[in-house]
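Running this now, will post back.
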Amino acid sequence: MAAPEFDKATVFKGIRKVSMAIPLMFIGPVVINSSFKNQGHPFYYPILAIGILICLFSMFLFFRGIVTMVKGFFNDNIQK
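Update: finished.
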């Protein structure tokens, strides 16, 4: 039996997306926490919105990375 083949380029694209999402998963909550510590500051709402957007983008990027990796692992278009 031959080892199952997969599309390495697609898998590495997914790994790249996930590796970009992981730092954002830490940066977003830090930004949100810093905005909550400075509620009296005039930039409270914009910084809170930026933190929420960073968290949402990291979730989206992580999800797209996982989907891309799965597509690479289960690629049916490989020529035999």
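Helices lie at 8-37, 44-73. More later if anyone needs it.
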